[in-house]
Amino acid sequence: MDYVQLYWILVGVMALGAVGELIPGMPGSSLILLAILIWSVITQFAGIGWPILIVFAMLIASAAIEFLAAYWGAKQFGASKWGQLGALIGLVVGIVGLLPALPLGGPILGILIGPFIGAFLGEYLTRKELDGESKAKVALRASLGTVVGSLLGNLIDGLLAIVAVVVFVLSTWPLVARLP
Question: Is 65 in contact with 74 (CB distance < 8 Å)?
């Protein structure tokens, strides 16, 4: 296999990673980072300059974006610290708890359903000053905020992944065109 074939295989892996960023629970930035690392090692870091290093750092930082976006969404929709904590616990329980029960869709459903249920329970169980119906409305609003934030985080992660692939191709293609 020559360098050009390997290059396009790695770009394909990166494109798969960009799609994976849009789907909760799928590996995305890790595939892109792995492809960049493989290309860098094989070419002895030729053509790897500041744009690629910035993309590398950006993709590592994007791991926190989904969590921060869910937190922001919950906060914007009026969740208390208990609703936010419930969303985080729900995320972890959703991923781990649904994974064995639903091997195909477990983590995806867990990432979507877990924070929603966790935020709802966190708000509902800790709001003592409200009656039952008001507590349910506040809890539902906080849960919706968590979902909106998570979806927004996925969208931002997906856009960052697409930018990463484009920057990689634009930065490395001149080198690939000269390789044997």
Answer: no
